[in-house]
Amino acid sequence: MVGLQPSGPAPGLPEAVRRHAPALRRTALMLTGQEAAADRLVVEVLRSAPASADRAQLVQLLTRAYLHRAPSWRRPELEAVAGLTDPDAGDVLASLRPRARAATVLRRAEGWPASRVADALHVDRTVVARMVPRSSGLEAALAALADRHSRPADEVVTTVLTELTSPSPGPGPDPLRDGGTPAAGPPAPLARARTEAARLAHRPWTWRVLAGAVALGLVVWASALGDPVPDLPAADADAGGRRLALVDGTSLPTAGGDLAERGWALGPDGAPPVDLEGLRLLQVVPVNLAQATAPLRVDTRPRSGEAVFAALWCDLPVDDPRLHPPAARLMTGGESAVLACAGTGGEPAVERLVPLPPGTGRGLSTVLVAWSGDVPTRGRALLATYTEVGAGPTPVDVARPARPVVGAGTLVLDGTSPAYQVQSRTVHHRRVRVGPDTTLTVWAGAAGGITVQVDDTVVTDDGEAAVVPLDGACEHEDSGGDGIPDGAAPQDPPPPDAWRTADPELRDGRWLVYRPGRARELLLPDRLRPAAGQSRVATVTVSTTLAARSWQVQVSGASLVQEDTLPLPVTDAPPDRDVPEWVGGHRLATAWQVPNDGVPHALADPGLRPGRRFILVGSPARPAPEGWGAVAPHVATTRGAAELSMVRSVPDAFDEGVWRPGEQLLRAGASTRNIRAGTGTGVVAVTVPAAPGPTPPSTLLAYEPVAHEDFDFAAAPPMGVFAAPGEPLPDPLAAAGGSTVVVGRWTAEDLDDEGRLRIEEDLSSRTWLRLSTEGRGRVRVLEGGRPAVWLPDGWWSSWTAAPVVTDLRVEGTRTAGVPGQPFELVVEGYEEGFAVEVRVRGGEDGAPGST
Question: Beta strands of 308-424 (E only): which ranges?
Fold first, then answer.
């Protein structure tokens, strides 16, 4: 690899590895379900984290690294685990999308409160309870998964230290590190490759069609993989595409094109680019054409994204119309990819970077090669592989870029289009009527990133920011005149062969532009494209880091649809939706019916109290699009925007206390002083992402907090985080290893005359209270006279008179191995029923204080 030479471990690194690597690996196994992926994550996190980082910080870094690379691990290797309470728990775990799986591990295995999980995953707090399944065997499945791939702690430490202090295999930089300066002079493998590349320039070639080599390569491939011999097509054709005319008389290709203009060519020394356009050289593989079908050893393990990308350079003669340019088919793991030869002298140029089938092992993959076209009988070529790195291009403005020419029948979105603010982003939008031939052409006159979304689908996406569309959007018997083909099924997460559509320029839902003056044509997804002879209304939204004059999106074959700008009137909640008046310490104040059209709608604020909380109810509920710049449901206030979560059931959006009064307004930019004074917090508008097809409007509900003494417990339903007596309640720390010890159980009869209960047992930091309540009441948890739970003033309430059971984690001063002060519970009410169990997660021997 090209990169830093090892110089020994950083100060404090060995101790950090010994302290954290075994437990961190266990968490990584629960996240990925794959041993190799887990090991790679642990090494990456410990390499980049400061030696002083504690476990919580490392777990957060691990989770974010997992989410960044999750598309490669969407099919964890789960096996049936004997003894599970729920035999389908493994299937449930395997079906979770990466963010939901991360929430499950953090909430159930790490024991994090919902608020902390929400911050780690960058989601609204109401989303967490909805993402974590209630399966009774889920925690056991996670624990069994980690146990199945467990290794002794000393072996883990040794392996991780070896990885951190030794160079990685292959002649490229470590793709898991963004920083670092290459050592002086190239490593030996790259130097040899450069020498071999330079020798190619003046070698004489004898050309002929290697039909025998092609046949032999296919026979070897078929016998190795056990598959029938397929037809070998020629190299992938040029993507072609039209050109976008600019006002200065020039034009830009919208697909394909000459990548050499962007630097994708061999240098004067015959070496391929090392760092270019967010890609870093992973390996240079010399190909001996005298042995054209000889297997290659190639590193095809994606470090980020779906695939490793490759380019192939060959020494080609002067253009001869009688010759067919050669192309190589690379075959591994039952999959294949075709690379056309680019000339070492620059002609023909590299036209695209080709994704390779991802490797699954820890080392190099054996790649079989078959050729088509006129292949030389001797000589060498260079295969260069690249991995995605970095966070994207640095925005660079251009003073006066030449803007595109707008043709007839084309609508334009640019910096002058209607827009609204979401956090630090400006979102431009247009309602348009599109037809079956509609295309979107994106122009970037400067470097930066741009996201284009049509309805609820991000079209600047190659699968890494997959969106699950509105469930049932196509369940109606016909298209209803909207032009969506009948019977179109909702999309699933990207399939295992998502590497085939991997695009190095499309990441996290953005088109990344590293050089000014680029254009790209985007097609409407099939599920959004009207049938022949029909049309439909859609919302196109654009978020970008580019300056207003440096970008444009042209929508061809479309017409403008006027947006409804009248304020939404206050209405009653629809009777067909379960909207309780009282829930979770709040009371319903008002409601609005909101069109699912992706544009902001003004609201008439009826003077709600500052602590109000907004819930968005859809039927059915649907997740928000993912990726940078994607439009999520949100309310805009005079201080900013606060994201919302669309839920099916209002009680599921509440839990027992992660919400502070005015939480959404604080997220929107209001201060605590604003909340208390009720100033500068008025609601301006609400936006719900557009949904294709005729769908009922969503319902925006405003709930106001109610004092405990004024709350109607009898009318309030249980919140979604509770269980009924007798229902299985997952052990919050079952997946953390060790065993759960019930320290003691107390009932209302054990309370003193003032409703107090003192717990003297020696507890650890992994302490939970399992509360069983019925009727009106509340409980305060104190440690040394101070609140020991993350709730206002330490008070917890069930907010329902129904009998419920729930777990409440104690967040007091105690830490692992350091005993805290005795706990004290203060119980008010709950005459109908009260009981509490103190549970501690111990070590393998079950000792309460051990971790």
Answer: 308-314, 327-332, 335-343, 354-356, 365-372, 374-376, 380-388, 410-413, 419-422
Q: Which residues contact 178 (CB under 8 A, 6 or more apart)?
A: 389, 390, 391
- In sequence order, what are the residues at sequence separation of 6 or more whose Cβ sits closer than 8 angstroms to the Cβ of residue 748? 827, 830, 831, 833, 834, 835
Detail the DSSP E strand segments found in 606-691.
613-617, 634-637, 640-643, 646-647, 683-687
Helix, strand or coil for residue 627? coil
Residues 92-143 have pLDDT tens digits of 787 787 878 888 899 888 888 887 887 777 666 666 777 788 777 778 888 8
Q: Which residues on neighbouring strands pair with residue 780, listed in sequence order?
A: 795, 826
3-state secondary structure of 379: coil
- Band the pLDDT of 798: cuts 50, 70, 90: very high
Q: What pLDDT, in 10s, does the model give residues 65-89?
A: 887 665 434 334 333 333 344 446 7
Nearest by Cα to 445 from 550, 561, 527: 550
Residue 523: closest CA among 437, 628, 407: 437
Structure tokens at 227: 């598959």
How many whole angstroms from its chain centre is CA 761?
Answer: 43
Half-sphere exposure of 286 (CA within 13 A, CB side): 20
Measured distance between the N- and C-terminal CA atoms of the chain, rounded to whole angstroms: 40
For 82, other C-beta atoms within 10 Å of its C-beta total: 7
Q: pLDDT of 750-769, one tens digit each?
A: 999 999 998 876 666 677 88
Structure tokens at 699: 């319902």
**Cα distances (Å, whole numbers) of residue 516 to 275, 277, 395, 462, 541:** 18, 12, 10, 22, 22
* Residue of 109, 92, 125 lying closest to 29 (CA atoms): 109
